Amino acid sequence: MSDQQNVPPQAPSAPQAPAAPKAPWEEKPVTPVPQDARDHALVREIVAVLPDVVLEAVEFAGQITATVPCARIGEVCRTCKERLGYSFLVDLTAVDWQERPQGRFDVVYWVHRFSDSKRLRLKVNVAEGVEVPSVTGVWKVANWMEREVFDMFGIYFSDHPNLERILTWEGFNGHPLRKDFPIEGIDTGAAVYPEVYPPGGGPVAGGEGE
Amino acid sequence: MGNLEAMKPFPDSEEMEISFGPQHPATHGVLRVMVKLDGERIVDAKPVIGYLHRGTEKIFERETYNGAIPHTDRMDYTAAATNNQGLVGAVEKMMGITVPPRAAYIRMILAELQRIASHTIWLGTHALDIGAQSPFFYTFEEREKILDLYEEYCGARLTLNAMRVGGQPYDLPEGWSGRCRTFIDQFPARIAEWERLLTTNRIWKLRTVGVGVISAENAVEWGLTGPPLRGSGVKWDIRKVFPYDHYDDIDFEIPIGGNGDTYDRYLVRMEEMRQSVRIVQQCLARLPEGPVMAKVPKVIKPPKGELYFSVEGPKGELGYYVVSEGGANPYRLHVRPACFINLQALPEMVRGQLVADLIAVIGTLDIVLGEIDR
């Protein structure tokens, strides 16, 4: 391109005036760093009631994550609700870490306390095929959240009243949010017009034929 | 469930199970409810969802952070601005970015206009379901004006894609704030007009008072957020509890109800629209000059870690749970959908009531299937 030859030479940089401090949005952002939070007040509250449940506690961007043993999550949640006042379960979800040694999945609970508006994240490491105790008996809202985690990750919850698929259909085979599930979908054998849309593209046609 | 025998109007009658939806206009989309009926009384109801599942959370994992924003538009498609606000807020908090004040105020204006737009759809369709036809035309006329403002700002009317990590993609167009002010100043008169049609209307009250009652205790237990929670008398709003953008500088009230019925939720939403008008007026008056974009890297790469950030959407608490491995794509991006969780309480709210009340309760929960199924 001829434009490039017409670029004027760089003006010599003006001497830097000792300018006023820059506004925070012009500075390079300071990213939060994860810190150990075993001494945080919210973690100490749990330890005071259940001394040996907190395996690890991390603070990141002002949010506390406490990792607890998988088998005791029901007990921890019940204690959090009944003795520590976390009456509201905000969110329950899972993360797939595939090859991780301490268990493939994280199941994450995010609880809220109304009295002082504090939030706490509880986390359990779950190996594939291990059942997680259901918390539907503690918070009714956990019912559909656990069903969604089961549907999307294939994690089973023991004592769940109705552990069925919720977002995908009943005959669906596979758990879409696992990392080894292909993003283009799988052939479910449910193509409506296989001669027009060859199988291999998932329930909606568009993939390569086999 | 209470004593079923006592609930039966005809002790020797048989129960019947019918499928309500998924193609029924009163289900506000593709919701299917399996209802067990005894005569016209609902013994049990079971929502069946997933007809609109598009794998949004799976798609997020292959997108960049800014590339994920258009997908959030398509979740709650009546409230794209608040969906955007939640995602960009989460990533900004994770990266420690401070948004320039002008951008934050523009965000608040867009979000509050969106709340009004969402509530106008709710009012029009809810009243239409219950049998009042005329509010539908009046409310959609006002919503059209908001969509015109959006179109002028970002070119889109429904799926806005109007926010970016670090600020706003565009400054306000010339004269936009004046036109926004014209709209917002005439809007309280419109709300008063709609209230004259409904608030003391005898048929409206017969159809809504005491219908779909949920106590404050039960509302918390079922995880309700937004107007359904406030209608039951819990004074709780993310904008006050965990203020984001500049909501802590703005003066506004959180309306609450007392009885937790459909009528109270109606009153709460009407008052919320008035409060949104107040917020927009204050934002327009305070709108600072300056840049609308912070200094952010070209490729957004939040540090390794996990973070949950939520905003008060028109339907309730909309949260984003971001897990980053330090790359340009989220390792996991989970959405806490307000509608999905609010819908779960439907069986609790309709048991023992009439089929016609089921329609009122679906309307009062203000569900959008795009967000429920994602």
Structure description:
The complex is a heterodimer of chains A (210) and B (374). Chain A has 210 residues and is α/β, with parallel strands linked by helices. Chain A folds into two domains: 31-158, NADH:ubiquinone oxidoreductase Nqo5 subunit (Beta Polymerase, domain 2), CATH 3.30.460; 183-210, no CATH class. Helices cover 15% and strands 20% of the residues of chain A. Chain A is built from three helices and eight strands, in the order E-H-E-E-H-E-E-E-E-H-E. Chain A has helices at residues 41-49, 73-82, 142-153; strands at 35-36, 56-60, 63-67, 88-96, 105-113, 118-126, 132-133, 157-158. In chain A, the strands form two sheets. Chain A has a six-stranded mixed sheet with strand order 1-2-3-6-5-4. In chain A, strands 7-8 form a two-stranded parallel sheet. In chain A, strand 2 (56-60) and strand 3 (63-67) form a beta hairpin. The longest helix of chain A is centred in the C-terminal third of the chain and has 12 residues, at 142-153. Chain A is globular, with a radius of gyration of 25 Å. Residues 204-210 of chain A have low confidence and may be disordered. With 374 residues, chain B is mainly alpha-helical. Chain B has two domains: 4-48, no CATH class; 70-323 and 357-373, Orthogonal Bundle (Cytochrome-c3 Hydrogenase, chain B), CATH 1.10.645. In chain B, helix 6 packs antiparallel against helix 7. The model of chain B has no long low-confidence stretch (mean pLDDT 88). At the A-B interface, strand 4 and helix 3 of A face helix 2, helix 4, strand 4, strand 5 and strand 6 of B.
Q: Kindly report the CATH topology of the largest domain in chain B.
A: Cytochrome-c3 Hydrogenase, chain B
- What is the helix tally of chain B? 16
* Strands ordered across the widest β-sheet of chain A: 1-2-3-6-5-4
Q: Number of domains in the coordinates of chain A?
A: 2
Q: How much of the polypeptide of chain B forms β-strand, as a percent range?
A: 5-15%
